[in-house]
Write a structure and sequence with these properties.
This is HEPN domain-containing protein. It comes from Candidatus Aquitaenariimonas noxiae. The chain is mainly α and 162 residues long. It has seven helices and no strands. The chain has helices at 2-9, 14-34, 48-69, 74-77, 86-96, 103-116, 134-161. The protein is globular, with a radius of gyration of 16 Å. The termini are far apart.
Length: 162
């Protein structure tokens, strides 16, 4: 059974993760367009956890695509060390100094990650919560996906020239 998993992992490519991540991002954008925020301090709570999950998963796939391109094996990226922890992925990306993240970017991702890595958006966990603003996350995702995709496609182009 383990060989099947290894063979399946060998067919996962960074661009595939990027494309799927962009699909999750776009799904969040479509839902957010249907249920726009009233203003930045009063978000529309319609399908809020769904949108947070979609954008969180989009970030996870983007960051894993980048790290896979950097040579980190998919088995490692799927392990508990990385798991679904967006901040662990971001910290690893920062080791490579691929694109800058401001303290504000990291704070926003950290607020998302608190709930995302614990599966709060999938399983209703009781208690008081301070969720991040989806609109802010979507804006951040546009910038990071643009930077990440440019870097990734540049890496692929360099390898194809060699």
């Amino acid at each position: 059974m383990k060989n099947v998993s290894k063979e399946k992992d060998s067919r996962v490519f960074p661009v595939g993760l990027l494309i799927t991540g962009k699909d999750f991002k776009r799904a969040c954008e479509i839902i957010s367009e249907k249920y726009p925020d009233r203003h930045s301090s009063l978000p529309n709570t319609e399908l809020y956890k769904v949108r947070l999950y979609l954008i969180g998963h989009a970030f996870e796939l983007l960051f894993k695509a980048i790290l896979l391109q950097c040579g980190i094996p998919l088995t490692d990226l799927k392990s508990k060390r990385f798991g679904h922890d967006i901040i662990v992925l971001v910290n690893k990306i920062e080791e490579y100094a691929l694109f800058p993240l401001s303290d504000t970017d990291k704070a926003l991702l950290n607020l998302l990650n608190v709930y995302y890595k614990e599966k709060d958006f999938e399983y209703h966990i009781r208690g008081a919560k301070t969720y991040p603003n989806v609109s802010d996350l979507v804006q951040l995702s546009v910038r990071l996906f643009d930077s990440g995709e440019k870097w990734l496609r540049g890496q692929i182009a360099q390898k194809s020239v060699k």
